Amino acid sequence: MTPEEEVEFRKRQRSRNWVVGGVLLFFAVLFYAITIVRIGE
Amino acid sequence: MEQTGSLTLPADWRDFFALTKPRVMTLVIFTGICGLLAAPGSIHPIIGFTAILCIAMGAGGSAALNQWWEADIDREMKRTASRPLPSQRLKRTDARDFGILISATSVAIMGLAVGWLSAGLLALAIVYYAVIYTIWLKPRTPQNIVIGGGAGAFPPMIGWVAVTGDVTLMPVLLFAIIFMWTPPHFWALALFVKMDYAKVGIPMMPVVRGERSTRRQILVYTILLAPVAVAPWIIGGTGFIYGVAALALSLAFFALSLPVAFRQSIEQDSMQPEKRLFGFSILYLFALFAALVIDRVAAGQGWI
Lengths: 41, 304
Fold this sequence. Notes:
A: 41 residues; B: 14 helices
């Protein structure tokens, strides 16, 4: 891998990690909210 | 399903997002929300949001599976050649796994958070689109668009059932409206956009049965659509706001389909009537479902 490719590789890896992290966090919050709502029913 | 050696970079997350066909999803989300808002009864906003999210995820998952299956076809057609799979920005197996993952997740969350009837309908919609339509019938019959319309017709029904928990005539009518609407909508487009479906062996109506037959069938489905669109009012499921809107919109749709039905395109045809009909078909569906929601909200508030 050339240095340029390495930079691009890291960049994509990083942005993907952020997206996956964001999605997981979103679902954690959503499941918490769903649980609270359904317990209250 | 061979992979090229050049594909060593991790795929961009935007390509996974593109697999879900975000533009199609806007209509899915809109009609799903309308079904949810028009249904009698109430739903907690968080559960309602979850239901719409699951419908959107299911639509995205089946769109990804559709592109996984059709990658070879998409590569041969100008309109689709730049999608993530044909342009090799994404591995084909990754698209398949991504599609299965978000489809299964959407059904599981729908079942746990909202209800298992709406989850069952969602699973049915996904299998219908990805397997029955994409894999089985689309390459085999020129009525494929009619069948495909069934997949797009599920969202308002699922949204409705998420609130009520049972399937009554009203959600079935919402399903039937989109089912009847899809053929004239898509065939109008197919008439003026020269699609290269013939090249890849997909039997689209204008290619198989010819322009004349396609035009007549546009008219037939437009006529069939009108009573279905007005039916919610006739059976007393809605008030006059929806009824008048459905009547006016269906009359206009019919009026615009007449010139399309009885003409024949010539060399260098500008295809104005077809473009007008296609443009109006989109407005028709948005306006009809908006009228349904306004009607139901007005009735809920005691205004009508």
